[in-house]
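Cross-check.
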Amino acid sequence: MGDQDHGIDAEMCASLARQIKEVREMGATVALVVGGGNIFRGQVASKEFGLDRSVADYMGMLATVLNGLALQNALEKVGVATRVMTAIAMSAVAEPYIRRRAMRHLEKGRVVIFVAGTGNPYFTTDTAAALRAAELGADVIFKATKVDGVYSADPVKDKDAKKFDRLSFMDVLKNDLQVMDATAVSMCMNNQIPIWVFDLTTEGNIRRAVLGEDIGTIVQ
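Predicted model, tokenized:
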């Protein structure tokens, strides 16, 4: 949503597309998992509006499809072949998620965007990212967000919050550091997939992370 408080920002999509194109041209294989919080947050809606949690989560999953299609459009505008794969069947707008088909797309140099989470309520987009990473044999999960790493507390609210350069999975779980939800962190720990948290709003940070530069926080 860029600097907006809601919705999809065209320039943010264009920036992401440029950065993804850059790392693809460097030889990186890229698969993306997108959330939908800029449009609809299931947990929040469930609490605030009294929606059944399952219904709210399904609505949140549908919001991720909107983001995935917007990102696909931005990537194709800069010449990056892209496929959107969904965990909830909707053949008119996206392919169903099939692991072997996703692998073939990646082998052919396409960027694959995974939407609709895991297709199940009560599971977050973080868990979907960890699941897809494990299924596809990813080397690393880039948790690209709006902060420049993992802190001991919310740096906006606590000026004494400490930024960590490196953490273990157990550090994150024991101290409830909110890198990703506990299910996702446990899955990454069990499958030995590092999580690299960094600021997405600074253009060029995806390339810096791919090159192993000293940005953000690494959990491994």
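The chain has a mean pLDDT of 94. The longest strand covers residues 82-86. Passed to J.P. for a second look.
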